[in-house]
Each structure stands twice: as structure tokens, then as C-alpha cells.
Design goal:
Blueprint (H helix, E strand, L loop, with lengths): L2 H8 L8 E6 L6 E7 L2 E7 L11 H14 L5 E5 L4 E5 L4 E2 L2 H4 L4 H13 L10 H15 L11 H11 L7 E3 L8 E3 L4 E3 L6 E3 L1 H12 L3 H12 L4 H28 L6 H16 L4 H9 L1
Antiparallel strand pairs: 1-2, 2-3, 3-5, 4-5, 6-8, 7-10, 8-9
Length: 299
């Protein structure tokens, strides 16, 4: 019996009712389903193979999803089956966003408003640090002989340089999703909802902002807009932190993609994605602006 069928059978509220299971496309780590119970839709996420290797803590995810729901930016958890690491979540009646949709006029401001609402909500269970996650992913690659993008190890001194600069004037950590790619925004016409808290944790808010700017491939005007909407003004030091975190987003999630290319059973060109992200990170590290960003955040 498939996990999704076991889950459906175990939920007492659904017994004796009409249940229809429909697979959903788009997940890069897990298998997602829309389950209609007497015509009422629910969202069910079944973890993918070996996702624990990606440093996903399902207890942390459950706690933080609840906290984000209390903050008013995530849907409610309706059922939790910890033995399967499965959550049944309120199905949002809205549009799953795309990179193109989030590049439309006014969207950076709406994104910043949603992110700020999450960041001002209840603290999360644990912390998230992309520098430490990158170290963990590198050790996993070494232990399992997983190939990494060319020149990756040679750039770790630059990564250390970024972390050292970031720590001169660290920002207070706040609850962050840390993985706000386009598909983790849902627009119901009134607000943007933020979903998928697998990598959530308390973190520097400029990582959240920089990461999502990198996912959308925002230009400088859009980056300035998201900064102004979040901080109240276009602050050069915050822009510099966001730019450096755009690099760290590609450094860390590029390595994640390299690992997925080795362990995932989902049909997706993870290695191509790893190389694309690493190429973007290297381009920014080699840019004439890089040293300026480092200097800006330590002044």
C-alpha cells in the first residue's frame, strides 16, 4: 500500500466518507497530493526518499509550520501523522506563483510585506545558518563521493570571507522560511501566502530577502523595491547584505542540487541546476562590486 493510502486510512475524521486522491506536480523534494474529502480539498505532502540527508528535520518543520500559521502567512495544519512524517494542510484557494508572475510590477513590495509578517511572528524551533548547512552538505559530498561543481572547494575561502564580514555587525535573527522560490508563494488575490517550511529556522532576515531575490533573478530596481518595502528605505548596508546572501543562496542550494542529483528519484535535472547556480555565485564573487559589498556591511 502506498504511503498516501495508509495516511488516508489512518485519519479517523475521513472514515466512511468519500475520499479522492489526486497527485500534484511540481515538488522537488517530496510527493504532493490533493485529497478531496466529501468534496473538500486538503493538501498532503509525503516526504521523498532520503530527505533526511538534506538536513530536513520534520519535527522542526511541523513546529515552524504551526508558528507560521499563527503569524497569518501559512495555511493551518489539520492532521499530523509523525510516524509517516506527513502533514495534512488546509488547501489554499489561490494561484501557485511562478518566477514570471513574481517579476510583475508591484510584486517585490507584496513579497516583502508577506516576509515581514512571517519574520515578526512567533519564534521558530531552531536556527538556520547557510554557512553551517554548506559545511554539512560538503561533508556529505565527501563521505558519499558526490561530485560538486568545478572549482567549488577553491572558493570556500571566499565563503569564509563573506561570513566574517557578516558577523561584524550581525542582525538579530527572525523566523525565516529560507527557501522562498516562486512556487512557495501562493496568491489568493488578497495576500501572498508562504508555504513549505522544510528548511525554516531563525535567521538573518537579509538571507530571506536575498535568497528570494536570487530565486526570482530580480534586477537592482526590484532588489531596491523589496529592501525599501521591508526596511522602510533603500539602505546601502542592507542591500549589500542581501547581495552577499544572494551569493550564499546559490552556494548552498547549488550544493543541495548536486546531492539531489545523486539521491533523488524525482525526474528533474538537478545537476544542471547545480551548475547553473554555481555559475551565478562565481560570477558575483568575481564581480567588481563584490569587495564593495564586503566593505559596506562592516562600516
Amino acid at each position: 500500500m502506498a504511503v498516501i493510502e495508509e495516511v488516508v486510512e489512518k485519519i479517523e475524521d475521513w472514515k466512511g466518507r468519500s475520499v479522492f486522491i489526486q497527485p500534484l506536480s511540481g515538488g522537488l523534494t517530496n510527493t504532493n497530493f490533493k485529497v478531496e474529502v466529501d468534496g473538500v480539498p486538503h493538501f498532503v505532502r509525503v516526504p521523498g526518499e532520503s530527505t533526511e540527508l538534506l538536513a530536513i528535520d520534520r519535527n522542526n518543520e511541523y513546529h515552524n509550520t504551526k508558528a507560521a500559521s499563527h503569524a497569518g502567512v501559512a495555511p493551518k495544519i489539520l492532521h499530523h501523522l509523525p510516524e509517516h512524517n506527513v502533514m495534512v494542510i488546509e488547501f489554499l484557494d489561490g494561484k501557485t506563483m511562478s518566477k514570471d508572475a513574481l517579476n510583475e510590477s508591484g510584486m517585490p513590495t507584496r513579497m516583502a510585506q508577506a516576509i515581514k509578517k512571517l519574520n515578526q511572528g512567533p519564534r521558530f524551533l531552531s536556527d538556520f545558518n547557510m554557512f553551517r548547512l554548506t559545511e554539512y552538505y560538503l561533508s556529505l559530498c565527501k563521505d558519499r563521493e558526490i561530485r560538486t561543481p568545478q572549482g567549488y572547494l577553491d572558493r570556500m575561502a571566499t565563503v569564509a570571507q563573506i561570513e566574517k564580514a557578516m558577523n561584524v555587525k550581525p542582525l538579530p535573527t527572525v523566523p525565516c522560511n529560507n527557501d522562498l522560490l516562486a512556487e512557495n508563494y501562493i496568491d489568493d488575490g488578497r495576500q501572498l501566502w508562504l508555504i513549505d517550511y522544510e528548511y525554516s529556522g531563525n535567521n538573518d532576515p537579509t538571507f530571506e530577502l536575498g535568497n528570494t531575490c536570487q530565486e526570482m533573478q530580480f534586477n537592482d530596481e526590484q532588489i531596491n523595491e523589496i529592501c525599501a518595502a521591508y526596511f522602510g528605505d533603500v539602505k546601502p548596508d542592507m542591500i549589500a547584505r542581501m547581495k552577499l546572501n544572494m551569493i550564499m543562496s546559490d552556494v548552498g542550494w547549488g550544493l543541495w542540487a548536486a546531492i539531489q542529483a545523486n539521491i533523488s528519484t524525482i525526474e528533474f535535472d538537478f545537476w544542471g541546476w547545480a551548475e547553473e547556480r554555481w555559475g551565478r555565485a562565481v560570477e558575483k564573487m568575481d564581480s567588481k562590486e563584490f569587495e564593495g559589498w564586503l566593505k559596506e556591511i562592516v562600516q
